[in-house]
Specification:
Order of helices and strands of chain A: EHEHEHEHEHHHHH
CATH architecture of the largest domain in chain B: 2-Layer Sandwich
Structural class of chain A: alpha/beta
CATH architecture of the largest domain in chain A: 3-Layer(aba) Sandwich
Structural class of chain B: alpha+beta
Number of strands of chain B: 22
Largest interface: A-B, 29 and 37 residues
Oligomer: heterodimer
Strand content of chain A: 5-15%
CATH topology of the largest domain in chain A: Rossmann fold
Strand order of the largest sheet of chain B: 2-1-5-4-3
CATH superfamily of the largest domain in chain B: Histidine kinase-like ATPase, C-terminal domain
Number of strands of chain A: 5
CATH topology of the largest domain in chain B: Heat Shock Protein 90
Shape of chain A: elongated
CATH class of the largest domain in chain A: Alpha Beta
Distance between the termini of chain B: 159 Å
Strand order of the largest sheet of chain A: 2-1-3-4-5
Helix content of chain A: 55-70%
Number of helices of chain B: 20
Distance between the termini of chain A: 33 Å
Shape of chain B: rod-shaped
Number of domains of chain B: 5
CATH superfamily of the largest domain in chain A: Response regulator
Radius of gyration of chain B: 62 Å
Radius of gyration of chain A: 24 Å
Largest sheet of chain A: 5 strands, parallel
Amino acid sequence: MSRAIVFIVDDDAAVRDSLGLLCETAGLEVERHDSAESFLSAYRPQQPGCLVLDVRMGPMSGPELHAELSRRASQLPIIYLTGHGDIPMSVRAFKAGAEDFLTKPVNGAELLERVHAALQKSREMFDRQAKLAVRRQRLADLTPREREVMLLALAGYANKAIASKMGISHRTVEAHRARVLQKTGAATMVELARIAEDCELVPRP
Amino acid sequence: MPDDLKNIICRWLLDRADIPLLVTDADGAVVLSNAGAQSLFGRSTEQFSGLRLETLIADLPDGKRQPSLASHAPTPSYESGRKISARRLDGGEFLARLRASPLEGGLTLALFEDLAEHERIEQALSEQELQYRAIIETAADGFWIVAGDGRILAINDSYVRRSGYSRDELLSMRVSDLEAIESPSDVSAHIEKVLANGSDQFETLHRTKSGEVWPVEIFVSYWANAGGRLFVFARDITARKLTQEALRESEARFRAIFEHAAVGIAQLAPDGRWLRMNDKLCEIVGYPREELQKRTFQSITHPDDLGADLDLARQLLAGEIEHYQMEKRYLRKGGGTVWVNLTATAVRHPDGSADYAIAAVEDISERKRAEAALKDLQLEMEQLTRQQAARQTVTAIAHELNQPLSAVAAYAEAALSLLRAGNPQPEQLRHALEGSAQQAQRAGSVVRELMAFLNKNEIATEPLDLNDLVRRALDQINMDGHDGIAIHLELANGLAPVRANRLQVEKVLVNIIKNGIEAMHDAAAGKRSISLTIRTSVEGSMARAAVCDSGAGIATDTLHRIFDPFFTTKPDGLGMGLAISRTIIESHGGRLWAESVQDAGACFNFTLPFAA
C-alpha cells in the first residue's frame, strides 16, 4: 500500500508553504494545492491520507470541496483550518463529517497530533476496505453449488439436511463445505459466518 | 239798501264767481256776462252785449240757428246740462257744458263749464290708473282687491296663472275658496281683524284649481277711504320654504355628523375657550362637557406642543392661513397625555375677523405607539447591523492577520522540529526561519495598513513610479499563486512620479487586480480568453491606472453599490475591499471608479496626482 499523504489546500502561499514544511519535518509526505479545484483535478480515490483544508478560499470554498468529496464517496478525513472561530460554520462542518476544526494560527504540535490521528484512521479505513475487497473476491470465486451449500450451512442446516434438500450425496456436501472454507480462507464456520456478514451476503444477527 | 249798491255788490259777486255765466233776456240776447264768461269766450262786456246765445254755440244744427234759441224755447232749460262746442271771439272752439235755467222776468241764466280742463284731469287720472294697473300686473306677487265680505273684486295675471283658475272663475270666488288652511269662518274673522287693524302680514297655504297646495305670504291692507276694499298681495314662498327645509335638513345632518363622528369636533372661541364639542372629543381628552367648557385649549395642551399650536392659531385668527393641521398632545383629565392629529379652521365674520374656530381632533395614540415601537425596532436593527458590521470588520482584520501569523507559527515549529532532530537539513531550517521572518513582516504591514487606514489624514507620501507600483502588485499576486492568467501590461513610457503611499496604493492595486481575476474565474471558464489588461496613462494633472478584465462585467444596478462598505457579491466576501480602496485613493486626492459593459468585462480606474 502507498504511503498516506497530507493534502494541504490553502490559497495563501505562505500558509501552504509553512504548514507543508511543518508536516515534512515531522516525516510526513505532503502534497500542496492552492485551490480546491487544483486538489480535485489531482484527486486519487485510492490514495489514503488526510486533507488540511482552509475554510475561506475562492472560488470553491472548503465546505464546497467537502461536499464534492462526499458526493464522490471519499472517506478522506478532513481537518479544517479557519482564521476565526466561526461557530455556525464549525457546526456545519462537523455535521458534514469533518474530522477536526482548528483555528489559525494553529498550534503546530496540535496540528501534527490531529494529522497523525487522521492518517491513522485513513490507513485503517483503507486496510479494512482492502481486506473486504479480498474477501469479496474470494466469495465471488465460489461456484454456484458451493455458494448454495455455504448459505444453507450458515442458515444452520446439518450436512444431511443440505444433502437431501439439494438432492446430492452427503459426501458431496462435505466436499463442497471443505472447498468453501479453503477458498475463503476461513478456519471455522464461525469465521466464515463473519466474512459473509462483512460482505453483506447474509444479514447481521 | 239802495238798488245801486245792490247792483254793485251783485256785479262784484258775479265777477268773483268761478263759473262763467251769462244772463239772456226773453229774446235770447245777452244782457249780462261775468268775468269768467268773458275770459272763457274771449269777449268784453260790450262784445257780449246784445249777442244772441246761439252765436256762442258752434255745433248747433243750422236749422236751429234761425229762428233764435228763444223762438223755439224762450227760456231754454238744460238743468242737467248739455255738452256743447262753444266758439270764442277769435273763432276757436272748445268743449263746454251748458246748463241753462230760467230766472224771473223772462231772463235765463246760462252757466258754462269748461270741459277742456275737465277732460285733461280725466285723462291724467286714467293714465295714473293705467300705471298702477301696469305695476300690479307686472308684479310677480299675486294681487287681489277683496270686498269686506270676502268676495274677490279684482285679481292680477300673476295670481291667475299660479292658481290655475281663469280670471272669470276667480272673480266669482271668495277668499275662503282659495284658502287651504283657514275655514270660511276663520277667513271672515281674519278679515274683520284686518278691517279693525288696517293691515296684516301672515303665511298661509292656498290651493290651486288642480288641488296643489302652495305656501303664500299675505300682505293685506284696508283702505276705508278707497271704497272699503282690502288690498292683498299674495307672495309665492314655495322656493323660500324649500330653502328653509334644505337648510333644516342640512343642519340636522351636520348635527348628526357632529354628534356621532369618530373624530372629536369642537367649536372654540377666538380666545381658546371650548364652546361646543361632541362626545368623542370629551372622550379623547377625558373631561366631561361642563368641565371642558370652563377651560381653554391652551390649558389642556401639552407644554411642549403649546408654542407651535399658539403660533398656528394666531396665524389662523389673523387670516394669514385658512386652516392648519398638527400632531400634538392634550393633557387628559386625571393625568396622562393623548396624541392627536388636530385640524383647525376659522369661521369668519363678513369683515374677515374670526367668529370662532372649528377643531377636528383625531386620536392617534395607537399610531404613535406603533411608530414608537417601529422606531425601537429600527434602532435595534441598526444596532444589530452595526454589530454585524463591526463583527465583519473584526473578522476581516483577524483573517488578514491570522494568515501570516499561521505561517509564522508553522515555520517556527518546523524550525524547532528540525533543530530537535539535530538540524539534518540546514537548507530547510534556513527556509523555515526566512519564511517566519517574512510572514512576521507581512503581519506587521497589515497592522500598519490598518493604522494608516484609521489615520488616513496622516498618510506619509513620497514620489513613486506608478508603473513600478503595478509591477510590485503583480509580484505579490504571483507569489499568492495566481498564475495561468495572461496579464497584459500597457504602461506609459516616462510617466512622471505620483505622490502616494507605497503600501496603500499597492494594496489598492492588489485588491482590484484580484477582483478582476476572480471575476474571470466566475465567467464560465473557456468561454472567453482569460486576460487582464493593466494600463497606465496621463490624464491632465493626474496619472491614471486602469485594470480591465474580460469577465462577465458588472450589472448596472450593482455598479453604483460596489463601493459601499460591506457590499459584496461573493458568498463569503466581506465587501470591504473596494470601499477601503476608494477611501485610500480619495485620501490621496485621486478618484477610483468602475466602468462596465455587460458581458464585456469591467474596468477599475483610479487616478493619483503627480508629485511635481
